[in-house]
Structure formats: C-alpha cells, structure tokens
C-alpha cells in the first residue's frame, strides 16, 4: 500500500516540523519485504529528481529524518545547478546485502510509477545503475541506469569532475589562482566518487592523502596511484597538514571538533550534508576556513543523470558540469561581498531561482 505520511508515525510530526515538503509517501509490499519512503520537497522547477538510498536504518524515524533532509538538499542542488528539475529523495529500509531482490526493486518501481512523473529516481548509496535497470522494468521515471540499459552509467564520473571544478574555484578565491598544483588534499572515503576524485587531483598535480575503513578499496586505489599517502582513519586525516579537506563518505563529518582541528583552508568534497549542524558554518568562518556548499560541489552526478531525460550525451553533460566552476565562483564572490557564509549565498541563489522560475507556472498554457 502507499499512503501519505501521518504525523503519528513521528513524535514531532511531519506537518509539525514545517519542513516545506510537498509530499511524503510511505511504501510497503509485504511479499517482497519492501519498506520505503519517498519525499518530494519541491516541484517548482520541474519533476523532483533524487536517488534511492538503500540503507539499514536503525528505525523508521531515522529513515524519515534522512529522507526529509536529503530531499530538501536535492531541490537546492537542482536549482543551483540551473536544472529545470525539483528535488526529491527515496530511502529503502534494510541491508541491501541481505534483502535486496528483483521482486523488492520491481515493487519499488511500481510505487515510483504510481507518482506519475512527480518523482524521478536514480541510484544512491546501496543502489547501483543495474538496480535502476530493474526498477525501470516497472517505471518510466528512472534515471541513473546502466549504459547497456540505455542510461548514463555510473554518475560518480561527473560527480568527481564537478567537485574538482568547485575546488579550482575555491583555490582561486583563497589563493588567487585556479590551480591545485602542489596543494595537499585529504580525501576521506575512496569509494566511487572519492576514487575518481583522487585521479583528477593527481592529474592536476596535487599531492593526496586518503583514508577509508574499506581496506580493499584503499588497496585498489594504490595499485593505480601508488604515490598516494594513506592514514589510519578519518581523525588522523582531519588532523593532518593539508590544504584542502575533501569529504567523500557519509554526511555529518564536519562537526565542531573537525572544524576546530582542521589545518585545511578549504573544505570541498563529494559527500552530501557534510555539516553536522548549521552552527559549524560559523566555526569554520571564524577560523578562516572556506566551506564550499556540498550541494554545489557535488552536483555533477545530478547533472549526469538529469541528462538522461533527453537522451544521454556525455559531452553535453560534462559541459554543463564544468559550469560548477562558475557557479562556485559566483557564490563565493557574493558571500564575500555581503559578509555571508557560502551556504547562505548558495541557498539564496537556489531559493531565488525556485521562486522566480516557479512563478512562471502561473502563466496558463493551452494544451
């Protein structure tokens, strides 16, 4: 069954939170074991696009909190990236290594289809482009599919490219030149995005230090980039002598402690929701550490999957992802001019676009 979110499922209440979401739906199929939540934050600019996260949440409350937070970020990411798309997100509750199955993914696809195009899904943590191929057997509203399935393939390719563009703009802002040559970059997490980002950094002449609890991922990275340094864990990385800190794992990594010990002058990475709390912005600012809003820096993956809607062309998508440099540069300049943090400047850009372009919907078009 699929139902609108009910306040009694959450002690605070979805409505009491005043999150601004247009729609939150709970999806359950007992036969396949599917338990999912789809959150649509905004369709002001177009259908809400956002990935499906498959994760063993502690409980439904944790899943709901995550999907509400992630879907809002997707709306801002789409708006700041200049896309004619809104923002949404979905989470499937469970360990993908144990419960993921064809029947569960196809059941999920039918719920996506039931939203009639208000929500377009893609892959995220715990899901792959091959999973999206399965979901697409039940729904027309699926992006992030494999190339064999007619999609763009792994979106980490342009995510990492976009992070590099944002990094270059931040380097220009801080050091006066858009160049990473000789800079020391700490990359936390060398999964799909982090691994590709290391490649871009090495190519740009930066020295790189990484950490990841997945020893196999680190070993695979070192076979290709043997000169990359490795530290034991994220605490060692954050305390290391680095110029740029690039979080590419889970969110919430930049907390008060991290902000207090970082030697880096720039924080710019591929992870979503990097700031553990809003107040961390001020701590970074007080220490003269430039934070590039994560949804600006990592928009390349969204741009890549969004390009599938018109029939994927890599060159076109990459050209649009290259625009992350100019977007970052503009946001940082506005923040400096107004005495704001980059997050405030980025939010203002996204909100202005959602308001101004969304208002055009009031102009009636004859069908």
TrEMBL record:
<dbReference type="GO" id="GO:0005737">
    <property type="term" value="C:cytoplasm"/>
</dbReference>
<protein>
    <recommendedName>
        <fullName>Valine dehydrogenase</fullName>
        <ecNumber>1.4.1.23</ecNumber>
    </recommendedName>
</protein>
<dbReference type="InterPro" id="IPR036291">
    <property type="entry name" value="NAD(P)-bd_dom_sf"/>
</dbReference>
<comment type="pathway">
    <text>Amino-acid degradation; L-valine degradation.</text>
</comment>
<dbReference type="GO" id="GO:0043837">
    <property type="term" value="F:valine dehydrogenase (NAD+) activity"/>
</dbReference>
<feature type="domain" description="Glutamate/phenylalanine/leucine/valine/L-tryptophan dehydrogenase C-terminal">
    <location>
        <begin position="153"/>
        <end position="362"/>
    </location>
</feature>
<dbReference type="Pfam" id="PF00208">
    <property type="entry name" value="ELFV_dehydrog"/>
</dbReference>
<dbReference type="InterPro" id="IPR006096">
    <property type="entry name" value="Glu/Leu/Phe/Val/Trp_DH_C"/>
</dbReference>
<dbReference type="Pfam" id="PF02812">
    <property type="entry name" value="ELFV_dehydrog_N"/>
</dbReference>
<dbReference type="GO" id="GO:0000166">
    <property type="term" value="F:nucleotide binding"/>
</dbReference>
<feature type="active site" description="Proton donor/acceptor">
    <location>
        <position position="89"/>
    </location>
</feature>
<keyword id="KW-0560">Oxidoreductase</keyword>
<keyword id="KW-0547">Nucleotide-binding</keyword>
<comment type="similarity">
    <text>Belongs to the Glu/Leu/Phe/Val dehydrogenases family.</text>
</comment>
<dbReference type="InterPro" id="IPR033524">
    <property type="entry name" value="Glu/Leu/Phe/Val_DH_AS"/>
</dbReference>
<dbReference type="InterPro" id="IPR046346">
    <property type="entry name" value="Aminoacid_DH-like_N_sf"/>
</dbReference>
<dbReference type="InterPro" id="IPR016211">
    <property type="entry name" value="Glu/Phe/Leu/Val/Trp_DH_bac/arc"/>
</dbReference>
<dbReference type="InterPro" id="IPR006097">
    <property type="entry name" value="Glu/Leu/Phe/Val/Trp_DH_dimer"/>
</dbReference>
<dbReference type="InterPro" id="IPR006095">
    <property type="entry name" value="Glu/Leu/Phe/Val/Trp_DH"/>
</dbReference>
<keyword id="KW-0520">NAD</keyword>
<comment type="subunit">
    <text>Homodimer.</text>
</comment>
<keyword id="KW-0101">Branched-chain amino acid catabolism</keyword>
<dbReference type="GO" id="GO:0006574">
    <property type="term" value="P:L-valine catabolic process"/>
</dbReference>
<feature type="binding site">
    <location>
        <begin position="189"/>
        <end position="194"/>
    </location>
    <ligand>
        <name>NAD(+)</name>
    </ligand>
</feature>
């Amino acid at each position: 069954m699929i139902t609108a979110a009910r306040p009694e499922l959450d002690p605070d209440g979805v409505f009491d939170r005043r999150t601004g979401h247009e729609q939150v739906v709970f999806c359950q199929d007992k036969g396949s074991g599917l338990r999912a939540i789809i959150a649509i934050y905004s369709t002001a600019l177009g259908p809400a696009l956002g990935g499906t996260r498959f994760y063993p949440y502690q409980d439904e409350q944790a899943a709901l909190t995550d999907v509400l937070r992630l879907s809002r970020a997707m709306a801002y990411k789409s708006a700041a990236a200049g896309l004619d798309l809104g923002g949404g997100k979905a989470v499937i509750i469970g360990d993908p290594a144990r419960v993921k199955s064809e029947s569960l993914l196809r059941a999920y696809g039918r719920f996506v289809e039931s939203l009639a195009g208000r929500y377009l899904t893609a892959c995220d943590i715990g899901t792959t482009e091959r999973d999206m191929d399965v979901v697409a057997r039940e729904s027309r509203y699926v992006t992030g599919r494999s190339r064999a399935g007619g999609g763009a393939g792994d979106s980490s390719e342009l995510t990492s490219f976009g992070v590099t563009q944002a990094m270059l703009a931040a380097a220009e802002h801080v050091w006066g030149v858009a160049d990473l040559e000789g800079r020391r970059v700490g990359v936390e997490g060398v999964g799909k995005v982090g691994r590709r980002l290391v490649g871009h950094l090495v190519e740009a002449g930066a020295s790189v230090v990484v950490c990841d609890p997945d020893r196999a991922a680190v070993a695979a990275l070192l076979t290709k980039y043997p000169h990359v340094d490795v530290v034991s864990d994220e605490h060692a990385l954050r305390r290391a002598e680095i110029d740029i800190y690039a979080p590419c794992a889970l969110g919430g990594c930049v907390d008060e402690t991290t902000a207090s010990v970082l030697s880096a002058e720039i924080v710019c990475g591929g992870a979503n929701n990097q700031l553990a709390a809003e107040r961390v912005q001020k701590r970074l600012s007080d220490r003269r550490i430039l934070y590039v809003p994560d949804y600006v820096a990592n928009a390349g993956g969204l741009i890549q999957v969004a390009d599938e809607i018109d029939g994927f062309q890599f060159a076109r998508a990459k050209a649009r992802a290259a625009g992350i440099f100019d977007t970052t540069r503009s946001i940082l300049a506005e923040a400096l001019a107004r005495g704001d943090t980059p997050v405030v400047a980025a939010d203002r850009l996204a909100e202005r676009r959602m308001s101004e372009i969304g208002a055009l919907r009031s102009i009636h078009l004859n069908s």
